[in-house]
Hints:
- This protein is of the alpha/beta class.
- 37% of the residues lie in helices and 19% in strands.
- It has 8 helices and 11 strands.
- It has helices spanning 26-41, 58-63, 68-92, 114-122, 140-150, 184-190, 197-205, 220-225; strands at residues 6-11, 45-50, 97-101, 110-111, 126-130, 155-160, 165-166, 178-179, 181-183, 210-214, 232-235.
- It has a 9-stranded mixed β-sheet with strand order 4-3-5-2-1-6-10-11-9, with helices on both faces.
- Strand 1 (6-11), helix 1 and strand 2 form a beta-alpha-beta unit.
- Helix 5 (140-150) runs parallel beside helix 7 (197-205).
- The longest helix is centred in the middle third of the chain and has 25 residues, at 68-92.
Amino acid sequence: MAQYKRVLLKLSGESLMGDKQYGIDENRLDDYARQIKEIADMGVQVGIVIGGGNIFRGLSGTAKGFDRVKGDQMGMLATVINSQALSSALSAMGQKNQVYTAIRMEPIGEYYNKWKAIETLENGGVAIMSGGTGNPFFTTDSASVLRAVEIEADVFFKGTRVDGIYTADPEKDSTATKFDEISFDEIYSRGLKIMDMTATTMCNENNMPLVVFDMDTIGNLKKVIMGESIGTRVYSKK
Length: 238
């Protein structure tokens, strides 16, 4: 039995590159879509936010001379491209879905509002929420938490290429050890860079549990939905 009724899944734009150096790896996209359809078929209501770092990252562009606002707007458009790709893959598998955009882009996507997104979820569709918050200076992690709180998700899943939260970056420090559970307060005190501070604080203040797990391993999404102890669960102290 699924342990959650409604979830918000944040997917990494970089992970969509798969084995490529840029853009979208069709095999990785297909893997993601199949895993999402699998849990939707279990009756789980799935909201999704995807990053855009495989196409353009605003902060990186700023470092190369782009205006920060324009750079962030380009990043928002990158998330829309990724969202359209996932929507197409889900539709090809027979999974109903709707792309929402944080800024008006009809007919590319429907302008986002909470009630429309929840209606999609309750009717068995996957709600793909793109365009970040619609504002510069906010990351897609912040947008993800905002959407999780808005749609009243039971949990916020952050799908990454690592299998949880470690004492240090496991790709750089071989002595890093993994947490099975950790509080948001301890993340602050240890200075762990799981998400930006805005996103982490929003999760904590709204009692939104966070699970960080390896989305690139096929089957892991179903495992976390079933409550298996993979990844790392982050909780708010009462």
